[in-house]
Amino acid sequence: MQIALLATMLIQYSNTLAQNNSDKDSTLQLPDSIVQYIAPIDYALMMHENTSWLVKANLIYEDWYFGRTYVKFGIEKRVFRPLTINLSYNPSYTITSFENGWNFNTNVLELETRWYYRLLKRRQQKSLNFNMSDNYFAIGVERIHLKPLDGLEYPAVYSTNFYKYYLKWGLQRRLFKHGLADVGIKAGIMTGDAAIYEPSLSLNTYFDFGLGITHDKYRLDNEKLCPVLKCYEAQSYLIKTNLISLFNFQYHSRYKKLELAPTLAFEKKIGNSPFSINAELIAVLRFSGKNLDQYSKRFKLDREDYYATLEARWYYNLNKRILKGKSGNGLSASYIAAGNVYLERRYNYKFNDSWNTVYITAGWQRVFAEHLYYDIQWGMGYTYKTTASGGFNPFFKMAMGLRF
Questions:
Q1: How many H helices and E strands in the chain?
Q2: How far apart are CA 360 and CA 362, in angstroms?
Q3: Hey, CA dihedral for 200, 205, 210, 213, is it positive or negative?
Q4: Sign (positive or negative) of CA dihedral 385, 389, 394, 400
Q5: Most CB atoms closer than 10 Å: which of 141, 245, 256, 377?
Q6: Is residue 94 over pLDDT 70?
Q7: Contact 262, 283 (CB under 8 A)
Q8: How far apart are the C-alpha atoms of 178 and 171, rounded to whole Å?
Q9: Number of other residues whose CB lies within 10 A of the CB of residue 361
Q10: CA–CA distance, 202 with 189 (Å, rounded to integer)
């Protein structure tokens, strides 16, 4: 529930800031000569601003070493032209170890240096300023602190602090003044502070999405943003994929694991009305192998999760956005949704469990550029007809990827 509430606060705050920036003239208007020279997509990604610092608040939705959804706060500071220092902290979340089922309260402190390797060349070619809205290489370290829950007496010989040393290739983008997205590939080695823990290797995709706050010099021109936001584009349907948690690989002396999560969604508008039907299929496949004598060292599919979702959406503010010139008669607006998600879980090719969850959510979907979108929704769900525990639970979902 805390994640859902914070998601609402971030989105509402971003919308308020965007509205305030469009109404106020306290910042300067970018000279017409520069506006005409900069491509609309560069303008929307704030590449015309000289960014020396950036305060961040991101929602993280991923399946990493233990699997987690959490909030991360950070600050990035430029130290020399395209070189920056990025510090972030996740104060608290709960994880469950997949090896023994123990629950832990966890916090993560992360420090890295980033090199925005294209900035010097891009600045010479397009007269763009030094900023933090571009591609980068990074090297850094994470400290992951574990505190056992449920009165567990955690053996002293086990690690309570893990350290991950990593390399990243990423694409950070500022979106329309206060939005922020950071996506890429991360490779690292993890060690523990106890001698019993042997290092493990990992390779995974990552995705951060939230707010980026800094001081900008110029006021955005909404007309210049229309080619990116597709202000007048009408969509009767969308085919969507989700790039979040696309793959995750770990290798340890005692085990190895590969997780894949392909996603395909189809949304169809009902005539010219503000209603649509959205259907989604997700397969989460985990391949693993034990590096012990009594187990096979080969990868084998040992767990399968299949999700099938069907929901109805009402884009309640679509007409208002059309009148303001912010969108066409399509599927890029805020909505209320009601639906059902069916999950079937299998272990070692054998049926294990299944359940249904009915839910109602508030959501925010936006299309931008030629083939990109994001979709965030939260609300409440009720799980029924299941061998697992049912009842009411918060419902949260986030997607960003390609749309056709």
A1: 6, 20
A2: 7
A3: positive
A4: negative
A5: 377
A6: no
A7: yes
A8: 16
A9: 21
A10: 6
Residue 266's beta-bridge partner residues? 239, 279
CA 37-403-399 angle, to 5 degrees, is 105
The average pLDDT across 91-108 equals: 65
Q: For residue 342, give Cα distances in angstroms to 264, 285, 388.
A: 15, 16, 13
Spatial distance between the Cα atoms of 394 and 378, rounded to a whole number of angstroms: 8
Cβ neighbours of residue 99 closer than 8 Å, sequence gap 6 or more: none
Nearest to 307 by CA among 378, 239, 397: 397
Q: CA-to-CA distance for 315 and 269, rounded, in angstroms?
A: 10
Helix%, strand%, coil% for the chain, nearest 5: 15, 55, 30
Q: Give residues with Cβ within 8 angstroms of 393, minimum separation 6.
A: 357, 380, 381, 382, 383
What average pLDDT does range 43-66 have in this prediction? 75
- Quick: pLDDT tens for 200-211: 888 888 888 888
Q: Look-up: residue for tokens 């829950």? A: 149
8 A C-beta contact, residue 297 and residue 291: yes
Q: From residue 111, how far is each of 74, 114, 362 by CA, in Å? A: 10, 10, 34
**What is the dihedral angle through the alpha carbons of 86, 87, 90, 95, rounded to the nearest 10 degrees?**
70
- Reported as a pLDDT band with limits 50, 70 and 90, residue 362 is very high
d(CA 244, CA 259): 12
Give the C-alpha separation, 339 to 360, whole Å.
7
Average pLDDT over residues 395-400: 84
Q: How does pLDDT run across 218-242, given as a tens digit for each residue?
A: 888 777 788 887 777 888 999 999 8
Separation between Cα atoms, residue 185 and residue 308, nearest integer Å: 27
**Residue (of 302, 305, 304, 306) closest to 348 by Cα position:** 302
- The answer to whether the CB of 52 falls within 8 A of the CB of 81 is no
How far is residue 70's CA from residue 65's CA, in Å, rounded to a whole number? 14
